[in-house]
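Troubleshooting log. The previous structure file for this entry was overwritten by mistake, so regenerating from the original sequence record. Sequence copied from the archived sheet and checked twice against the printout by T.R.
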Amino acid sequence: MDSHDGQRDPDSALIMAGIRALHDRLDQIERRIVPGERIMAGERAGPGGHRPVPAWKRPTQGEARWQVALAVAVAVALQYPLPGRLVLVHPVWLLPTLQALLLIALITANPHRINTQSRVIRLLSLTLAALLSLANAYSLARLAVDLVQGTEGNNAGPLLITGGTIWLINVIVFALWYWEFDRGGPVARAQADRMYPDFQFVQMVSPGLASPDWEPAFSDYLYLSFTNATAFSPTDTMPLSRWAKMGMTVQASVSIVTIALVVARAVNILK
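Regenerated output below.
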């Protein structure tokens, strides 16, 4: 008995040492695997047992310029027909024309893909967003004050058109801000400089339902802004950072005020 037990103890020690060595080796291999490449439950593995890294987690060629350029051009064009009393700077065409020139400069500097890291381009882009926001905020505030004082809105049709125009510009403006700051902006997203997103899109939590080449583009932020302005709350895209939550809160508040005042006044004077 003693002799057998004496043989059994070294064997057990060797077995335990081998198991520990195997665990250590597996831990080393797991640490070498990029988190985005690890196989998750329910996902299809690619060659070598790894799934493709989603585009929003890796460097890409950058987002196409045309989506954001088209949306900003619409926002600029919508300011021209606004009544003069709702315009911040006179003559009425001055501020929209300045915005259009900034947009042309941005397109000229980076016409195809938004992938050029430049402080000047970044500053011009933020300046354009700020001018759009300032002009539309003044128009909305002036319209709200005039409606409360009873000096605005004698005809339901023009009032609804004006209110709808300001509301639509507001949707584009907030989409532009979301797009400009999510994970540091379009260039930072293209270079995958920041790991943690400010907005969680459906494709991020369900990568099996999207192409590996999917990454958020301006149209995704425009949809986010539109749904927040109509539902007054997040729908399928969740804000993660504090600034994203506060931004969506401000947009929902502005949208509620715009719709409530304009629709209420239009219903009262509707014949």
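The CA atoms of residues 179 and 185 lie 6 Å apart. Archived copy saved in two places this time.
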